[in-house]
């Protein structure tokens, strides 16, 4: 990390809609007040006065000002945001990986919460919840009809409070209640296993405070289980991003120390920086380098990186760096395309401003913004093809998205056609669900049914790979840039 960015604080990266943003975090940073447009400010004051005096009912002055700030910032791009007390707390929870809850990694299946995995050592883990368990009720509330966010909010709460989960365990064909006491949970953002002799799988689901330590620990475990590791799959699918310094560290595990991982460029001097694969660019002041514990063989182990439309920002940085340096083969689908840097400036102990200050670039100088990383090998989601991949939003689909800064964007007619076909399939699936025929869910990442992982292992072993026959490089939509 450049010296100026080091002084400024820590940096994070991610996307939108279930993702974060690439950010530099600054504590109460004040820039010189720019020359203000007095006439427009007078209009703002006049509107504030009229609303306060003439609106049909009394309004909260502080809320008016907060809404005005939020509107001003949200009009810039999808990632700039004013954090009030609640949203700032949620943001910090997202980057630290800590929250108060029961401790499960979850997804939704048939309208119910499905336990992907209980977090080791968590209340859910100690209560005996298992992978594949379905949660049908949270206290007295049926889960059917709840969104993912609503279900999560009901399971989270204050420390030492209790929540009753009704569990349906398919293997035992029975339902039973489990009372769990909430406590602070530290999310596990790294999972790993030996897929078959000689070949490992390591998944990073988000780049958080503990990700680098967890990453090193998991690689150490893999090396002990399989001393003769012949190949490794680094799985970044659906990884929305997180801490930029963590992404630089992960890339550094596989690159020489002088290799460029990512560069940033914007209007202010602090936004112009280059990050290399050496400790001074990813270590916090006074920290020890966990990368020193990595087995030396990891730097040279054959590597495949799996990505998809949900891989954003920090995960795109890692994939782009390893691809540009020809250190890994990138497989999967074209990534989200979130390539802008947001600086988080704290305004008070409980509020902050997140504002876009730069774009970031791969080592070869390519802007990821609104385009993403194009895999070396395109893969479908399943052996039968893609299901609804074309319907997943990308950066280029977001209103007021920032353009790449590297020339005009082109209309992507192939993607529009794919979206129309996916919409038709979605309508057909809804009709089947109405008739009581639930669609087959996509397999869990890392499972024996994970088609893309199987193709990645085939690539590492030199076997044939079932390359997508329909996926093509997607171009940003020129009609939706600002």
The CATH topology of the domain at 190-241 and 295-336 and 364-480 is given as 2-enoyl-CoA Hydratase, Chain A, domain 1
Quick one: biggest sheet?
A: 8 strands, mixed
- What distance lies between the first and last C-alpha atoms, to the nearest angstrom? 30 Å
| Portion in helices | 25-40%
Report low-confidence residues grouped into runs of 5 or more: 1-31, 476-482
Q: What does this protein look like?
A:
It is a single chain. The protein has 482 residues and is α+β, with helices and mostly antiparallel strands. Among the domains are: 100-186, PDZ domain (Pdz3 Domain), CATH 2.30.42.10; 190-241 and 295-336 and 364-480, 2-enoyl-CoA Hydratase, Chain A, domain 1. It is built from eleven helices and 22 strands. The strands form four sheets. Strands 1, 2, 3, 15, 16, 17, 20 and 21 form an eight-stranded mixed beta sheet that branches. Strand 5 and strand 6 (112-118) form a beta hairpin. Helix 8 (244-252) runs parallel beside helix 9 (314-324). The relative contact order is 0.13. Residues 1-31 and 476-482 have low confidence and may be disordered.
């Amino acid at each position: 990390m450049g010296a100026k960015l080091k002084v400024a604080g820590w940096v994070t990266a991610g996307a939108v809609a279930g993702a974060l943003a690439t950010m530099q975090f600054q504590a109460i940073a004040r820039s010189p007040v720019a020359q203000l447009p007095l006439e427009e400010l007078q209009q703002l004051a006049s509107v504030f006065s009229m609303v306060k005096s003439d609106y049909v009912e009394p309004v909260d002055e502080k809320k008016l000002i907060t809404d005005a700030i939020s509107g001003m910032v949200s009009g810039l791009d999808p990632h700039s945001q004013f954090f009030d007390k609640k949203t700032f707390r949620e943001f910090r929870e997202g980057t630290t990986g800590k929250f108060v809850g029961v401790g499960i990694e979850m997804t939704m299946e048939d309208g119910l919460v499905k336990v992907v995995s209980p977090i080791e050592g968590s209340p859910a883990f100690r209560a005996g919840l298992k992978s594949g368990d379905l949660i049908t009720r949270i206290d007295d509330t049926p889960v059917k009809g709840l969104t993912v966010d609503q279900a999560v909010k009901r399971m989270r709460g204050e420390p030492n409070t209790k929540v009753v989960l009704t569990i349906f365990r398919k293997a035992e064909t029975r339902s039973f209640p489990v009372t769990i006491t909430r406590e602070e949970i530290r999310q596990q953002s790294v999972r790993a296993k030996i897929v078959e002799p000689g070949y490992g799988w390591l998944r990073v689901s988000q780049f958080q405070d503990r990700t680098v330590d967890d990453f090193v620990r998991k690689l150490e475990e893999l090396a002990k289980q399989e001393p003769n590791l012949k190949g490794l799959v680094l799985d970044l699918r659906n990884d929305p991003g997180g801490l930029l310094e963590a992404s630089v560290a992960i890339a550094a595990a596989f690159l020489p120390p002088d290799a460029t991982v990512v560069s940033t460029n914007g209007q202010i001097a602090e936004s112009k920086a280059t990050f290399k694969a050496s400790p001074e660019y990813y270590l916090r002041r006074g920290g020890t380098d966990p990368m020193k514990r990595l087995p030396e063989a990891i730097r040279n182990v054959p590597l495949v990186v799996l990505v998809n439309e949900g891989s954003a920002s920090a995960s795109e940085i890692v994939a782009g760096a390893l691809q540009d340096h020809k250190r890994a083969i990138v497989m999967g689908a074209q990534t989200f395309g979130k390539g802008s840097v947001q600086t988080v400036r704290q305004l008070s102990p409980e509020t902050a401003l997140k504002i876009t200050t730069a774009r970031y670039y791969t080592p070869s100088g390519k802007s990821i913004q609104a385009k993403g990383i194009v895999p070396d090998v395109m893969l479908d989601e399943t052996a039968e093809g893609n299901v609804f991949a074309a319907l997943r939003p990308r950066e280029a689909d977001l209103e007021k998205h920032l353009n790449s800064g590297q020339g005009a964007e082109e209309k992507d007619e192939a993607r529009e056609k794919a979206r129309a076909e996916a919409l038709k399939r979605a309508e057909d699936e809804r009709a089947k669900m109405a008739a009581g025929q639930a669609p087959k869910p996509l397999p869990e990442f890392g499972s024996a049914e994970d088609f893309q992982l199987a193709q990645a292992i085939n690539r590492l072993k030199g076997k044939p790979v079932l390359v997508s026959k329909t996926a093509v490089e997607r171009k940003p939509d020129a009609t939706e840039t600002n």
